[in-house]
Structure formats: C-alpha cells, structure tokens
Design a protein that fits this description.
Two copies of one chain form a homodimer. By secondary structure, the first copy, chain A, is of the alpha+beta class. Chain A contains four helices and seven strands, in the order βαββααβαβββ. The mean pLDDT of chain A is 93.
C-alpha cells in the first residue's frame, strides 16, 4: 500500500520522495459500484491496515487515531472515465464521471490526506452549502 | 423573459403559477464558450433588463438593487450534454458537462434566485473550501 507519488506528496506539503500510504477503495451502494476512491496519507499513518478500513470509513479511522480533519480544499469536475474506471464503475459509453480532488487538514493546518475520487455521475451529486453570513 | 416554471417556483418557495424572470446567458472565456447559465428570479426582480445584465453580472445587479445573496444550497453533478448544450458549448462527442444547480437566499432567508448552470468540464472546475473548525 506504499508508493512514491511526487505530485500527491506536494499536495500534502511533503518532500517528493516521501513514502505515502496509498489506499484505493471501490464504494458500493445498493449492490452497485458508486465511487472509486483513491487516498494518500503521510508516513505518520502507515500503521493503518486494510482491516481498519474494512471495519469503518477512513475518517473514522483517522479520528480513532486522534486526527480530526477539519478543513478541506476540494476541486470538483467531470470527465470521461478511463477504461479502468469505466470497468470498475460499470459505466456505459458516453457516461461521464464526477470527480472530486481534495486535500484535508487538521486544526493545526497539517495536511492529513489527499483524495482523488470519481463517482458514477448518474447516481451521485455533491451537495455544498455556501454560507457568507 | 418571463415564464411559468412550477418546479423552479417550488425551489424559490413560490406558488407554482408565480411568474418568474427567466435569464439565459452563455458565458465566454478567452473567446470560447465556457458555461450556459440559466437563472430564475422571483416577481420582485422583473425590472431587471438585458441592458443591466450586459453591463455587469447578475449578483452585481442584485446588489445594486439592495439584495445580497449570502447563503446558497448547491448541487454539483455531471452528465452528457443535451444537443443544444453541445452546440452552444462547442463540445465534441463524449465530452460531458459539469452541472451546478443552486438556490440562493438573502440574510432574511428569502430565496433570491435559482440557477441551473452547465460548464465545459475540460475547462472548468468548481473549487470548494469546507471549514468545520
């Protein structure tokens, strides 16, 4: 689960050769694939195991280790899927994916995780409440 | 520019037969179409003219009339474009649109506008900062 990924390391504010924990999950809803979720975490989280992630979500695992991501910079877009994404998400030709790239930070401003997720667009929307009061 | 649109009226918390101001704009960036923007406004804003909108953005026009949208509920998704959207946004086959549906409210909680926008996905992402501190 560990890989060198220089551009992701930069997003996490780590040196290019930092050894990151790489997690890939396929999320199902009602027996159908909904999202392909890729996450990378700093070396401090190498102890997280597949077993931890099978038992609960990534953020619950982080919280159980005393980390609380509280700020996230998200970039939301759309594109045709790659061949692999099309296969995993069981998409028909011309069906796009909704994408969300995110870096999350704890209250001290430390980058906690970087995510690159794609969703079956026909089954998923991202809801955002903007409050400028 | 006025139309009956019952589902939009509901989003604006108005009766189904409310006469809404309907605005359709094609936004360009660097000489290329970027977004097809559809907005609906309550009867109070019927005085807004094409000339107002040519001179400045919709939110600037609203502010000049004493309205400040401060809360917005957005739903962000992706889909293949309609034939008309494909033509207006000059999309090639298989290129999706990024969509954003929004209802905006003023500080008193009154719905001010409902928008249904679609963007050339290859040229546009929606940036969101989530802050739960």
């Amino acid at each position: 689960m560990k890989k060198y990924t220089p551009s992701v390391a930069a997003a996490l504010d780590l040196p290019a050769d930092a050894e990151l924990l790489s997690i890939v999950r396929l999320r199902f809803a009602d027996g159908q694939p909904l999202a392909l979720m890729r996450n990378w975490l700093p070396p401090a989280y190498h102890g997280i195991t597949l077993k931890d992630l099978e038992a609960s979500g990534l953020y619950a695992v982080l919280r159980s280790r005393g980390t609380r991501p509280v700020v996230a910079a998200q970039s939301i877009g759309a594109r045709p899927p790659t061949a692999s994404e099309r296969r995993h998400l069981r998409l028909r030709p011309a069906e796009p994916v909704l994408t969300m790239t995110r870096t999350a930070f704890d209250s001290a401003g430390r980058a906690v995780e970087h995510g690159d997720h794609c969703y079956r667009a026909q089954d998923y929307t991202i809801e955002v409440l903007v409050d400028q009061r």
